[in-house]
Design goal:
Layout (H helix, E strand, L loop, with lengths): L11 H18 L6 H11 L8 E2 L4 E2 L5 E3 L4 E2 L4 E3 L4 E3 L4 E2 L4 E3 L1 E2 L4 H4 L2 E2 L5 E2 L3 E2 L2 E3 L4 E2 L4 E3 L3 E2 L4 E2 L4 E2 L7 E4 L4 E5 L2
Parallel strand pairs: 1-4, 2-5, 3-6, 4-7, 5-8, 6-13, 7-14, 8-15, 13-16, 14-17, 15-18, 17-19
Antiparallel strand pairs: 9-12, 10-11, 19-20
């Protein structure tokens, strides 16, 4: 899965890992900002490879959590979704606006690979694969930004509201749109 190859997301081990992460997200979402100790404890379990001073305003949704790596001084506003079937690497001093989605899952374009089928035990499965996402240091992703798997956003870049980032964005630029494109260099 994390190697970016076709895999069966209905695998029993993956199901258990996803279920654990989904429960932890639900627990986190029920807490208030003032429940700092409980929120911190949940994040330590949900994001074992991240800086635990990362701040999520609330209503988070992660597929696994264990493939998310977050640096120092991270802030995410309401409605963060990170589907982390592949690594999601987020640098230091990154800010996410409301309803930002970081989506590593990919689905085959050919229907012969994408459509549901039965596995050797008769279970219905749909194969998928993933591509990692990397967000450099000192980035800001504004509200309602969607980043697709396989994208790297360079250090110090800003992504405008409502953008869909489908290709790499260089360092030190303002980029926006659907598809997201560089608008100007940030001086």
């Amino acid at each position: 899965m994390t190697a970016g190859e076709l895999y069966n997301p209905a695998d029993d081990e993956l199901y258990l890992l996803r279920t654990k992460a989904h429960r932890l997200c639900m627990m986190y979402n029920k807490l208030f900002d003032t429940d700092e100790e409980e929120r911190y404890k949940i994040l330590r379990e949900l994001l074992p490879y991240s800086d635990h001073e990362a701040y999520f305003q609330g209503h988070i949704f992660f597929d696994y959590g264990i493939n998310i790596h977050i640096g120092k001084n991270f802030y995410a506003n309401f409605g963060t979704t990170i589907l982390d079937i592949c690594p999601v690497n987020i640098g230091d001093n990154v800010m996410l606006g409301t309803n930002v989605s970081l989506l590593t899952p990919m689905h085959p374009l050919r229907w012969q690979e994408r459509n549901a089928r039965n596995d050797e035990n008769g279970n219905i499965i749909q194969l998928e694969y993933g591509k990692p996402i990397t967000i450099g240091d000192n980035c800001w992703l504004s509200s309602n930004v969607t980043v697709i798997g396989g994208v790297t956003i360079g250090d110090g870049s800003v992504i405008g509201a409502g953008s869909v980032v489908t290709k790499n964005i260089p360092s030190g630029v303002l980029a926006a749109g659907n598809p997201c494109k560089v608008i100007k260099t940030i001086d």
